[in-house]
């Protein structure tokens, strides 16, 4: 079936007033392209019953160009857009903002295949996971986009995923905030690939101010994780949880804060750091730069751990019974940390 296309004039706002099976527009079940222009908006009208803006069902293939999706409000998933299993969504040069979900995915909830390119997902809220974008056993790709200032209560205020694959490149996850886990990005049993991206200024209540990952595989390259906060807990910048394999290359972890353990990184998984700098992070307890748990293994190659601070000990690295390999022959250094460079069993660490 040939794709249908609809083009809207610029500076036009379409107000939706009727609930059609949970959405303001009929469910997408075939290939359809919606083309907007400068300041073209699709919005749920004020004062009407709650509903999301768009639903993409199995067989649906929706492309959005130059559109703003706003005002959606649902008691389920996907305040702005819901992509069900077998559905496909491509978002280009568009904005998804000020949508609300009582469950997952304040802006977008993906159970199928979703690609977000050169777009903004911001100021959405939800009561559970992935308040900017939520992925459940699907394929989510975010490229050259901004997932910023989303808020919620569960896993991943900016981007949250339960299963499936998440690919993020040349993007930002900034100033997102939630009360539990993964202020910027939260990945559970997910294959995550994050490259050339800034994870900055995010806040979580407990674990992983910038990024939290549990039970999957994580590859990070050329990423800045900076000025993130775990307000009452651990892993101000990153928290690599149990049963997670992580490889972090050519990245910067700087200026993050954890109230208790692991200002820069808390590791309980199997993590390799290559050509990475961990600097200027702080922990209210132990492990200003890195806290490695009894279950964790962390290997450092050509990596710098410098000028981090812990209130108690392990200003650079605190090893709580796990395995830490510095590989100093590759150029790894742990220096200028306070009150000490290392605590616990960290072979090759001086001071």
Shape: elongated
- Can you count the helices? 0
- Low-confidence residue ranges: none
> Gap between N and C termini, in Å?
69 Å
**Largest beta-sheet characterization:** 13 strands, parallel
In the sheet with the most strands, the strands line up as 1-3-6-10-14-18-22-26-30-34-38-42-46
* SS-based class: mainly beta
Average pLDDT reading? 96
Percentage of residues in strands: over 45%
Compute the number of strand runs. Answer: 48
Helical residues, percent:
under 10%
Which value, in Å, is the CA radius of gyration? 21 Å
Question: Can you describe this structure in just a few lines?
Answer:
This protein has 351 residues and is mainly β. It is built from no helices and 48 strands. InterPro entries: Pectin_lyase_fold/virulence.
Please, could you describe this protein's structure?
InterPro entries: Pectin_lyase_fold/virulence. This is Right handed beta helix domain-containing protein. The protein has 351 residues and is an all-beta fold. Helices cover 0% and strands 46% of the residues. It is built from no helices and 48 strands. It has a 13-stranded parallel sheet, with no helix packed on it. The radius of gyration is 21 Å and the shape is elongated. The mean pLDDT is 96.
How would you describe this structure in keywords?
351 residues; mainly beta; 13-stranded parallel beta sheet; elongated
């Amino acid at each position: 079936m040939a794709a249908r296309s609809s083009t809207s004039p610029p500076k036009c706002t379409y107000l939706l007033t009727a609930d059609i099976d949970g959405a303001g527009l009929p469910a997408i079940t075939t290939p359809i392209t919606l083309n907007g222009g400068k300041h073209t908006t699709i919005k749920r009208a004020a004062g009407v019953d709650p509903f999301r803006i768009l639903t993409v069902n199995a067989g649906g293939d929706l492309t959005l160009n130059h559109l703003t999706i706003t005002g959606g409000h649902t008691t389920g998933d996907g305040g702005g857009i819901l992509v069900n299993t077998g559905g496909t969504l491509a978002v280009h040069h568009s904005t998804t903002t000020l949508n609300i979900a009582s469950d997952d995915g304040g802006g977008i909830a993906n159970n199928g295949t979703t690609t977000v390119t050169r777009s903004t997902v911001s100021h959405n809220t939800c009561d559970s996971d992935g308040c900017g974008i939520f992925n459940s056993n699907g394929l989510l790709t975010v490229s050259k986009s901004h997932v910023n200032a989303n808020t919620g209560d569960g896993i991943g205020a900016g981007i949250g995923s339960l299963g499936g694959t998440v690919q993020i490149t040349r993007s930002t996850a900034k100033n997102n905030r939630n009360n539990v886990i993964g202020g910027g990005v939260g990945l559970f049993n997910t294959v995550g690939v994050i490259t050339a991206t800034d994870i900055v200024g995010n806040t979580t209540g407990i674990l992983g101010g910038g990024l939290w990952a549990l039970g999957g595989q994580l590859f990070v390259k050329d990423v800045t994780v900076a000025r993130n906060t775990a307000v009452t807990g651990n892993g101000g910048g990153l928290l690599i949880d149990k049963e997670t394999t992580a490889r972090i290359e050519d990245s910067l972890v700087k200026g993050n804060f954890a109230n208790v353990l692991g200002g820069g990184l808390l590791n309980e998984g199997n993590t390799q750091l290559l050509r990475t700098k961990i600097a200027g992070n702080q922990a209210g307890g132990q492990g200003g730069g890195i806290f490695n748990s009894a279950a964790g293994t962390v290997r450092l190659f050509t990596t710098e751990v410098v000028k981090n601070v812990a209130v108690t000990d392990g200003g650079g690295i605190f090893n709580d019974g796990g395995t830490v390999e510095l590989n100093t022959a590759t150029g790894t250094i742990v220096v200028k940390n306070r009150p000490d460079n290392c605590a616990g069993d960290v072979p090759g660490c001086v001071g």
